[in-house]
# Entry
Amino acid sequence: MSRPKNPIMRFFAYEHLPPKLQVISAPFGELADALNDALPDSAEKSAGLRKLLEAKDCMIRASLDS
# Structure
């Protein structure tokens, strides 16, 4: 059974991105979904998802430089 979505989860959506960026973003979205479902709600889970989002954003920006 899936847990209710954490509000930060909307930032892990990748379907709207161009294919080049979907390849980068999708693994982060899939991992975020898995962790959100597997872990109980807590401050640490929120912090971990926020850091994962920061990492995804960095990788997207890195791909724009190439």
Observations:
- The chain is about 65% helix and 0% strand.
- The mean pLDDT is 94.
- The CA atoms of residues 32 and 49 lie 7 Å apart.
